[in-house]
Specification:
This protein is mainly beta and 442 residues long. It is built from two helices and 32 strands.
Length: 442
C-alpha cells in the first residue's frame, strides 16, 4: 500500500511541476531556454529569469497563491530553434535550472520608432552633413579609411556583398580607383578594416567574410599593388577595428567555432610577426563584450569602460563594477546578418570615440530604424536612421547632436584627412540598393 501511495504522490508532483520555462544553459550573456515558437518565443521578445521562493497561501482560505518570484536577470530572444530558443541578457546573470517567463509580445518589445526627422521636446540639435558623396550602385556592407597606396593621403575603401572598391577621399566621385571581386561560391563580405601591422607604409585592407560553401568565417587581407587589389593572406578568424581606452585604434580578432552551443572564441588583438598574421597571446578585457562586432573601449568620467550594443539594441556603458544603458534602442541593428549554427549573427555598424581638448570622450553611433512600423527589424529592413553624438555627463551618455539619414548605415569611422582636421564618415545605404559616403564635422 505504501509504495503505491508514494508512486501516486510522485506522479501528482510530476504532473504539477511545470514542464516548460527553464534555463537549459547559460554562458556569460548568452542563455539557452526550453521555450519554442509554440510557447510564444520569437526574436525580439522580452523574457525574465527568476528563482522561486516560499509558497504563498491565502490567510483565510488556505488556498495556494503560488510562490514568491525573485527576478535575477532579463533579456530578449535572439533566435528560435525547433526545440529551444537562444537569448541574450541585458542585465543580471543566469544559470541552468532557473525559471524563465516571457513578459511581452514582439510588438510590445519593439515599438515603432519615431521618425528621426521629428524633433522632440528637449531633443539634441540636428546636424546636417558637410558633404554627401556620389551615389554608388551597390549596397555598402562596410567601409574603411586608410593610406592604401602609401603616398600620404587617405582613401576610402567600400564593399558590397562580394566586391571591394577604392575611392579617392571622401568618395565624392563615383569613379573607383580600384575594384576586385571577393571570390567563392556564396561568399559574403561582412565588414572592412584598415591597418598597418606589417611595417609597410601602406595600409592593408582586412575583409571579414563568410564562406557559405564551407560554412566558415575568415579574414582575407588585401594590398594595393600597382593600382590593383591583391590578396596577400587568409586568416581563420574575423577582424574588427577597436579603440582602446586612450582612443588609439587597434585591430581585434575572434574565431567562430563549428559548434552551435559555444560558437564564439575570446577576443584577441591582431598580431604580426615573422611575416605572418596571428591572434595575439593575451585576450582583450571583455567587460561583457563577447561578440567582436558592436563594442569599443573608452575612458568615461575617469574610469575605463566598454561601450557596447545590447541584444535589445540599446547602448550599454559597462564599467568594471557598474553599468548604464540608453533609454532608447535601435543601435547596432543591421541588415548584415548570417544564420549559422542555429542562431542569427548580426554584424553591427562600428562605434567610434574621440577625445576633446578637455579630455572628455564623445561616442559616435548609428541607429538604424526599422521599416514597416518597427516590425522590419527582425528581417533586417531599415529605411531611415540617424547618426548620434553622445558625451558622458557623469551620469550617462547625453546626446550632443543627431543627424537623420535617408537609409541605414553600415560604416562609420573617424578620419584625419589633414593634420589637426578630423571628420566623421558614414557609409549610408538607401532602400534602392545604392550607397553614398556622408561627411560630418564631429
Amino acid at each position: 500500500m505504501l509504495p503505491a501511495l508514494l508512486a501516486l504522490a510522485a506522479s501528482v508532483a510530476a504532473a504539477q511541476a511545470p514542464a516548460k520555462g527553464y534555463v537549459v544553459r547559460a554562458d556569460s550573456a548568452t542563455v539557452w531556454l526550453d521555450l519554442t515558437a509554440a510557447d510564444g518565443a520569437a526574436a525580439g521578445r522580452i523574457f525574465e529569469i527568476y528563482v522561486e521562493g516560499p509558497e504563498l497561501r491565502h490567510p483565510v482560505t488556505g488556498a495556494s497563491l503560488g510562490r514568491v518570484e525573485t527576478r535575477v536577470a532579463g533579456g530578449r530572444i535572439v533566435d528560435v530553434s525547433a526545440r529551444y530558443s537562444t537569448g541574450r541578457l541585458d542585465d543580471g546573470a543566469a544559470r541552468a535550472g532557473q525559471r524563465v517567463k516571457l513578459t511581452s509580445s514582439v510588438a510590445d518589445a519593439a515599438p515603432a520608432a519615431a521618425s528621426p526627422d521629428d524633433d522632440q521636446p528637449g531633443d539634441a540639435p540636428r546636424r546636417k552633413p558637410k558633404s554627401r558623396g556620389a551615389a554608388l550602385d551597390f549596397a555598402a556592407v562596410g567601409m574603411a579609411v586608410g593610406d592604401f597606396d602609401g603616398i600620404g593621403r587617405p582613401e576610402v575603401a567600400l564593399a558590397s556583398e562580394n566586391r571591394i572598391y577604392l575611392y579617392a577621399y571622401p568618395a565624392a566621385d563615383a569613379k573607383s580607383l580600384a575594384e576586385a571581386d571577393v571570390p567563392g561560391t556564396g561568399t559574403r563580405v561582412l565588414g572592412l578594416e584598415a591597418g598597418k601591422l606589417d611595417g609597410d607604409a601602406r595600409d592593408s585592407l582586412f575583409v571579414s567574410v563568410y564562406d557559405s560553401a564551407f560554412q566558415r568565417f575568415e579574414t582575407r587581407v588585401y594590398k594595393l599593388e600597382s593600382g590593383k587589389w591583391l590578396k596577400t593572406a587568409a586568416l581563420a578568424f574575423l577582424t574588427r577595428g577597436d579603440q582602446d581606452v586612450s582612443g588609439a585604434r587597434t585591430l581585434a580578432t575572434q574565431q567562430v567555432f563549428d559548434d552551435s552551443s559555444f560558437p564564439f572564441g575570446r577576443v584577441y588583438p591582431l598580431a604580426y610577426a615573422d611575416g605572418r598574421y596571428a591572434q595575439g597571446p593575451v585576450p582583450l578585457k571583455s567587460r561583457r563584450a563577447d561578440w567582436l562586432f558592436g563594442f569599443t573601449d573608452a575612458t568615461l568620467g575617469g574610469q575605463d569602460a566598454t561601450v557596447l550594443t545590447t541584444p535589445s539594441h540599446a547602448l550599454r556603458v559597462q564599467f568594471d563594477k557598474s553599468q548604464w544603458r540608453t533609454p532608447d534602442d535601435g543601435y547596432g541593428q543591421t541588415p548584415v546578418r548570417v544564420r549559422w549554427g542555429g542562431r542569427l549573427l548580426e554584424f553591427q555598424p562600428p562605434l567610434a570615440v574621440a577625445y576633446g581638448a578637455d579630455g572628455a570622450a564623445t561616442v559616435y553611433a548609428v541607429r538604424n530604424l526599422a521599416a514597416l512600423g518597427g516590425l522590419g527589424g527582425p528581417f533586417g529592413l531599415f529605411n531611415r536612421g540617424e547618426v548620434t553624438s553622445k558625451r558622458w555627463d557623469g551620469l550617462g551618455l547625453e546626446n550632443v547632436w543627431r543627424a537623420p539619414i535617408t537609409g541605414c548605415a553600415q560604416g562609420l569611422t573617424l578620419a584625419e584627412p589633414a593634420p589637426g582636421r578630423r571628420e566623421l564618415l558614414v557609409a549610408v545605404r538607401g532602400a534602392a540598393g545604392r550607397s553614398s559616403v556622408w561627411v560630418y564635422d564631429p
